[in-house]
Write a structure and sequence with these properties.
This protein is an alpha/beta fold. A seven-stranded parallel beta sheet has the order 12-13-11-14-15-10-16, with helices on both faces. The protein has a six-stranded parallel beta sheet with strand order 17-24-21-18-20-19, sandwiched between helices. The longest helix has 27 residues, at 110-136. The N and C termini lie far apart (76 Å). Residues 600-813 form the Helicase C-terminal domain.
Length: 1242
């Protein structure tokens, strides 16, 4: 029950001790159980009941002489299980009374009634304790029997009786013996009754009219259908992908709000449990499918099969077993993947032979570390692609820099692209390289991510581009465009953390490398470039230690044939860290996540006191809430030791922490910082995060509690790293899932960073059941498998859209460039391929590609066109559709464009039928983008459906009744409305969620505009107004104001920060009160009218007019604010020829934007729409840039569909302001309009 370490005097509890404590079992009982079970390794149910009744808890059950006769009667009548002790013993009497209790006996003796109640109240608890002990010990058969016994005690029925007895209150008692006499006692047999008709069931149960009721009741029995696929990861590890489907009707009376099940994988031959977990089905999610991934050990030779068993924790007899066959499983080949670290003299930085390059490192170090020394020649004197697998902290960034220096030395005009998996890591690398490469070498380093935008000229001038994978994937999709010719100038591609190829975003990395090699091959083979002496684009992959480096190396283009023989592949052992690290792994019990996290707080504090009392500490947790809770507990433990400020490295009064705390906006962080503990997560403002990083780097505070993103982002040193829990809540599956092992290694890698420390310590705190897993596999990495098949439709669509793939054969041929192809050959069973033979692989990829293309066709992203020939798939071409081009151009999921198109058509129909008011158009557009597939994985956390309901009550436009508040799309829809209306959000998580949603809106609205106008879509009636609604939605998102909102609200977005100008915001609301009355007095009913009047008369006269109206609180503020608004007019429209219009537009703008907050661009954009006046068809569209000046004029030439007859209408819309759109009619025959023909609409 306990482990005692005489050296340290520490006591550590065992699994058995925890179970005994949880179920309140005496230590003498545990000793008895151990002794009896050791003598009965294959105990029967009768023997196990004897073990239960031998517990010391029943020793007080005395045997009285006068009771023996009645006990014998009870034994004869109710004891179906053989007794293994005399009824004159406590154990024997307890056994009889326990079986009598299950059989619903009613003793005559008062003392026996009292004893039977005592046994009934304790036997279930003892049986449950024994079950969990045997389950954790891996004893499959005994654990199953004990769980059956425990449930039998709870339900007072035997496991070999009909499961329908659990519904005895709803069914007549005579049907149970009738069914049992016919053999309907097992779960499978009982379920088979559902296949009969009602009359047959009634006859079978001797209840002629009850067949329907019996079948309805059977459907209440919790039946879980299991499906399992086996994927060999290594020769010793199998991955079970399990799907659990709840095939029953949920009855709240019997099931409550949740139902628990025990799931385990057992080896029937050896009676061993290799994995067990408790799974919970909720009424809220019923009947959704639950998906699990289990990591199971394999032993050679593989047995014929394992068994997957699921047993209800509550219902007797409800259990299913699935044999998982290994008949067709082929284990992958063994690898000896590691590179030995050579014993070399460290190279000095002078080996660069370039004083300018040497200056980069003169203040950092004098010699390269052993790994950099071993790679130096290949990096700096060859152009070979390189794969480096090395532990975190091995100086991989310097390796990337050496490759860049080689490239610029060889060809200064070429570019390097560095791909970082996270924006935070990209920003850190950008900051570091701008300081080094930018300042010292005068190179231009640009960041490309979702938060930044640069024009083609800037990117053409750049020397180094720092990108996220998605951004570079999007850019390289258009590599054939003349505006993206700089893509062909890239001669070095550096991919950091390339092992993330095996994670969810891996398909993007795979597409990037495959496309890079294709572009390189294309450029090299083009006739114009043949004489330039070009080489392949060099690819440098940086990673942690890999299990299958050769597959990655070959895919990257590293040659393993003589004479190269794999030169460029380096995969060092995890143990070659420049700074040695000690790892401690601790297991913690507890089924529920939050209580288990709470039990880890004290060990965190103890680890700090033991391993790092004065040195820096980082604690990684899974959520922002956990950062706060962990920090608060650490403070309380420190206070309990009479040293609450122990984590402050200086006196609070003398340190800069006190000054820094004053500038902190987050209340929790302000509190914890005063005790020397920083918080770090995405919910904090950038200023708060930077303050925490600075204080930690300056050793002002000792501890940071951070979410896992810090491991990939900011490079902070620590002596001790504590990984508090290895699970996080996955909003998509609504359950806690494990971090990838690579993430855990990345967190641990923050301990003992070079240049900062001489040693590092990592403590990994895990759930007890995962302790052995992490012990074994923390330093035995899994092979990197491909994730391309999960995003294959998007990947193929991107190539179809740009013309790289135009038939099925080329699509299959494209797969030869991918990493997936190499892994299918090496590990066919993992990908469900029949074998590794050439024919099997060819068939696999033909089927895979055909299925992906069919999926794209189904969603109208591409279409097949017949070519000249004899027929067959090979004679069909594949061409992109407008929807497919939209998916590629705007980086959409393949299902999104059709969802957008259908949403636009519904809006168009409602506009044409006049069923939708104009003021609702924008919200309808927001609804279209909110309910597309892009927001499928927006997290809806526990109880957030209640917060969504509260938020829905705050916004102006109410939700349709059919919408459910736990739907992620509904949450996205609410957040967009709340963003525009500046509603107060309920919790800080919603602020971060809003940012992630708003970041995508620009891309989605651009896609929506493309779909509305591309091809023949615009020729439908009403599409002019639909397109205008999309642009108005863009205006509303930019200014955070609806077209119907008070006009001065536009001053709150972009020009004035509402957070720092709250008094201004109040004044705006006061000013707007009089707008309606003003229209009655002066005739100025819209903001357009006001702006026009302000331009036509002097400032003083305009203010006097406003004052005379006596409707505004501050007329001077209104006049001043109007200066900040633009005034758009259409000077003339001329039909140059049929199908061509010349539109002269003018924007007057008296307010200087360029110096205000540094956010406004030098140009603003406007969109010119041409359509029919009658049925509002859209005929043409053009977006133009206008200079920001007091008066800006531009003649816009718009091509339109000249085949459509009728009067035309021209609508001009600014992209960044609501309510200044101008619409003019165009007379037939090409007449030129007078200057004042335009009218604003607000």
């Amino acid at each position: 029950m306990l482990r005692y370490d005489p050296r340290s005097g520490n006591l550590a509890v065992t699994d058995m001790g925890r179970v005994a404590s949880h179920f309140y079992i005496q230590n003498e009982s545990i000793a008895t159980f151990n002794e009896l079970l050791a003598r009965m390794p294959n105990a029967s149910e009768a023997q196990l009941i004897h073990v239960i009744c031998s517990a010391c808890e029943f020793v007080n059950v005395k045997v009285r002489q006068e009771e023996l006769k009645e006990i014998d009667e009870l034994k004869a009548r109710f004891c179906t299980m053989q007794l293994h002790s005399s009824v004159e013993d406590s154990a024997g009497k307890s056994n009889v009374l326990l079986q009598a209790f299950i059989g619903h006996a009613k003793p005559n003796s008062f003392t026996l009634t009292s004893d039977i109640n005592y046994i009934a109240s304790n036997a279930g608890r003892v049986a449950r304790a024994l079950f969990e002990m045997c389950l954790r010990a891996g004893k499959a058969a005994i654990a199953l029997k004990l769980l059956r016994i425990a449930k039998s005690v709870d339900k007072r029925m035997w496991w070999y009786q009909s499961p329908l007895r659990q519904f005895a209150d709803d069914l007549p008692g005579n049907i149970f013996p009738a069914l049992e006499s016919r053999g309907y006692v097992s779960f499978d047999y009982t379920l088979s009754i559902l296949e009969m008709n009602e009359a047959e069931v009634g006859q079978l149960a001797h209840w002629q009219r009850g067949g329907k009721v019996i079948q309805k009741t059977i459907r209440f029995l919790p039946n879980i259908h299991m499906e399992c696929t086996v994927q060999p990861v290594t020769r010793g590890i199998l991955k079970f992908s399990v799907e659990l489907s709840a095939n029953f009707d949920w009855n709240a009376r019997y099931c409550g709000g949740a139902l628990g099940f025990w799931l385990w994988v057992e080896d029937g031959d050896n009676d061993r449990i290799y994995h067990q977990e408790y799974v919970l089905f909720n009424k809220r999610n019923h009947p959704e499918v639950m998906e699990l991934e289990l990591t199971i050990p394999a032993f050679e030779p593989l047995p014929p099969q394992y068994y997957l068993r699921i047993v209800s924790d509550q219902f007797v007899g409800c259990e299913n077993v699935l044999p998982v066959s290994f008949k067709h499983v082929m284990l992958p080949a063994r690898h000896l993947p590691y590179t030995d670290l050579a014993d070399l003299t460290p190279l000095p930085t002078t080996a660069l032979s370039n004083p300018l390059f040497e200056s980069l490192y003169e203040s950092k170090f004098e010699t390269f570390n052993p790994i950099q020394t071993q790679l130096f020649h290949v990096l700096y004197y060859t152009n070979k692609s390189l794969l480096l697998g090395a532990p975190t902290g091995s100086g991989k960034t310097i390796v990337a820099e050496l490759a860049i220096l080689r490239m610029k030395n060889l060809n200064p005009a070429k570019k390097a692209v560095y791909i970082a998996p996270l924006k935070s890591l990209a920003r850190e690398r950008l900051k570091e390289w701008r300081k080094n490469l930018g300042a010292k070498l005068n190179w231009t380093v640009l960041e490309l991510s979702g938060d930044t935008s640069h024009d083609a000229r800037q990117m053409k001038r750049a020397d180094v581009l720092v990108c996220t994978p998605e951004k570079w994937d999007l850019i390289t999709r258009g590599w054939r465009d003349s505006s993206r010719s700089f893509v062909k100038d890239v001669s070095l591609l550096i991919i950091d953390e390339i092992h993330l190829l095996g994670e969810d975003r891996g398909a993007v990395l795979e597409a990037i490398v495959s496309r890079t090699r294709y572009i390189s091959d294309f450029v090299k083979s083009s006739s114009a470039e043949k004489t330039a002496g070009l080489t392949d684009t060099r690819i440098v992959g940086l990673s942690t230690a890999l299990a299958n480096p050769r597959d990655l190396a070959e895919w990257m283009g590293i040659d393993f044939e003589p004479p190269s023989r794999g030169l460029g592949m380096y995969n060092f052992r995890p143990s070659v860290r420049p700074i040695p690290m000690t790892v401690h792994i601790q297991g913690f019990p507890g089924r529920a996540y939050c209580p288990r996290m709470a039990t880890m707080n004290k060990p965190c504090y103890a680890a700090i006191r033991e391993h790092s009392p004065k040195k820096p500490v980082i604690i990684f947790v899974a959520s922002r809430r956990q950062t706060r809770l962990t920090a608060m507990d650490l403070i309380s433990y420190a206070a309990g030791d009479d040293d609450p400020r122990m984590f402050l490295n200086d006196d609070m009064e003398d340190s800069s922490v006190a000054d820094s705390v004053e500038g902190i906006s987050d209340a929790a962080l302000k509190h914890t910082l005063s005790f020397g503990i920083g918080l770090h997560h995405a919910g904090l403002s950038s200023g708060d995060r930077e303050t925490v990083e600075r204080l930690f780097l300056d050793n002002e505070i000792q501890v940071i509690v951070a979410t896992s993103t810090l491991a990939w982002g900011v490079n902070l040193p620590a002596h001790l790293v504590i990984v508090k829990g290895t699970e996080f809540f996955d909003g998509k599956t609504m359950r806690y899932v494990d971090y990838p092992v690579t993430d855990v290694l990345q967190m641990m890698g923050r301990a003992g960073r070079p240049q900062f420390d001489t040693e590092g310590i990592a403590c990994v705190l895990v759930a007890e059941g995962k302790k052995n897993f992490y012990k074994k596999f923390l330093y035995e990495p899994f092979p990197v498998e491909s994730k391309l098949q999960e995003r294959l439709p998007e990947t193929l669509n991107a190539e179809i859209a740009v013309g790289t793939i135009d038939d099925l054969a080329k699509a299959v041929g494209y797969m030869n460039w991918t990493y997936l192809y190499r892994r299918v050959v090496q590990n066919p069973s993992y990908y469900k391929c029949a074998g590794s033979e050439k024919e099997d692989v060819a068939k696999y990829f033909t089927d895979l590609v055909s299925k992906a293309v069919a999926t794209l066709q189904e969603h109208e992203c591409c279409q097949r066109v017949e070519r000249q020939g004899l027929g067959g798939d090979e004679n069909f071409g594949i061409v992109p559709t407008p929807l497919g081009k939209a998916a590629s151009k705007f980086y959409l999921v393949h299902t999104t464009p059709r969802e957008m198109r259908d949403g636009l058509r519904r809006l168009r129909d409602d506009i044409v039928d006049e069923e939708e008011e104009e003021e609702n158009f924008v919200v309808r557009v927001l609804e279209i983008i909110s309910f597309c597939s892009e927001f499928d994985e927006l997290p809806v956390r526990h109880n957030e459906e209640l917060l969504n309901q509260e938020l829905a009550n705050e916004i102006t436009f109410k939700l349709p009744d059919a919408m459910e508040f736990e739907d992620p799309h509904v949450k996205g829809y609410l957040l967009l409305q709340a963003y525009i209306e500046r509603s107060k959000l309920p919790i800080s998580d919603y602020i971060t969620d809003t940012k992630s949603v708003v970041d995508q809106v620009g891309r989605l609205l651009a896609a929506l505009l493309f779909i509305a106008t591309e091809g023949r879509e615009g020729l439908f009636h009403g599409m002019l107004d639909v397109t205008a609604a999309v642009i108005t939605a863009k205006q509303s998102m930019t200014r955070r104001a609806y077209a119907t909102a008070p006009f001065l609200f536009q001053m709150l977005g972009g020009v004035v920060d509402p957070g720092s100008h709250t008094s201004f915001a109040k004044k705006v609301r006061l000013c707007e009160i009089g707008m309606e009355d003003l229209g009655q007095v002066t005739g100025w009913e819209t903001v357009y009218d006001l702006k026009k009047a302000s331009l036509e008369m002097s400032q003083d006269k305009f203010v006097r007019m406003l004052k005379s109206a006596e409707v505004f609180y501050q007329p001077g503020l209104v006049a001043e604010s109007l200066k900040r608004l633009p005034y758009l007019t259409v000077l003339s429209v001329f039909v140059k020829s049929r199908g061509v219009l010349e539109v002269e537009v003018q924007v007057q703008d008296n307010y200087t934007f360029s110096n205000h907050r540094g956010t406004e661009k030098e140009q603003r954009r406007a969109t010119v729409l041409v359509g029919t006046k009658g049925n509002r068809q859209l005929l043409g569209l053009k977006s133009v840039a206008l200079d920001r000046a007091k008066t800006s004029k531009k003649v816009v030439v718009v091509e339109y569909d000249g085949t459509v007859d009728g009067e035309l209408v021209v609508k001009v819309m600014l992209d960044d302001y609501v309510g200044f759109d101008v619409e003019v009619d165009v007379a037939p025959g090409g007449a030129q309009l007078p200057v004042d023909s335009g009218k604003g609409n607000n």
